[in-house]
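Lecture 7 notes: from sequence to structure.

We start with a single chain of 364 residues. Read the sequence below before looking at the structure.
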Amino acid sequence: MSTTVTGIIARTKGAPVEQTEIVIPDPGPNDVVVKVQSTGVCHTDLAYRDGDINDEYPFLLGHESAGVVEQIGEAVTHVEVGDFVVLNWRAVCGECRACKKGDTKNCFNTHNASKKMTLTDGTELTAALGIGSFAEKTLVHEGQCTKVNPDADPAAVGLLGCGIMAGLGAAVNTGDIQLGESVAVFGLGGVGMAAVAGAKLAGAATIIAVDLDERKTEQAREFGATHTIVSKGMDEDAVIEAVRELTGGFGTDVAIDAVGIMPTWRQAFYSRDHAGRMVMVGVPNLTSRIDIPAIDFYGRGGSLKPAWYGDCLPERDFPAYTQLFANGQFPLDKFVSERIALGEVEEAFATMKRGDVLRSVVVL
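Now the structure, written as tokens:
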């Protein structure tokens, strides 16, 4: 029997979000109904609202979540009713060409729920990243549920569901930072700050945090930055030179663009040491273009990698980082800037645009 709950939707491009009633259908054989306890307000949700992902409106927003399994389909074996889970958008299929090669982090056919959630008039909703958790309950595939320590704070560990894992994984997985290496992170929102914290966790000796906002660079020191650069008023070349001066004139072993715009991309590219690694984890918009001389691409060597979800594997990484949080080894709780109600999502978007928070988290 279907259930009606309250949720937050984006009905049309750029319009303020709406709080309305959402219909959750009975789960299909491999589906799960999750009672949502927390959902982070992620920039990706704003991108859905503004049409920067696709135009499959209306969207049921929200995806960075923790909650409790409330109902399961008849064929579900991965979780049980009552399990505390963090939701993920990489429910690997195990059958596509990437999975068959053992490259599951690049699965081409990740699972989603078999049924659509709807408005009360029957209008089908597109769930953000296949999750749609700005709602009291949501419907997902069982593989989108990763069990973690039930004693953990939902508002903190739920952030592993997207942005914090993206930044953390960009450093640890994609960037493959090694003990004693140097790292520069460009852009200190939630993702960039997580990359700073990930660099510290990986054992980087020099961690340079770069942002326009001095408040953020100072906060980055709390997450592990050893040096900071306030780039406001500086041209791109001056920022690059400042990074080089902090690394003996050579540049960093790893440079991470956590913004996804051409100025920060270029700063990260040219701030690397010869044959250094560059990671792009900031998500570009649909019209962005990369424009550098081909000889620079060829001549500098190294590697340039996008970080999709921080190249994480939820079943491996979410429980591990939840335990590191419990041990006091990774500060997930520091990313929770404020706890808000479901009806405050639109206001949280404005707060995020101003750069006043790392994460606003809806607590239900």
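The mean pLDDT is 96. Keep this in mind for problem set 3.
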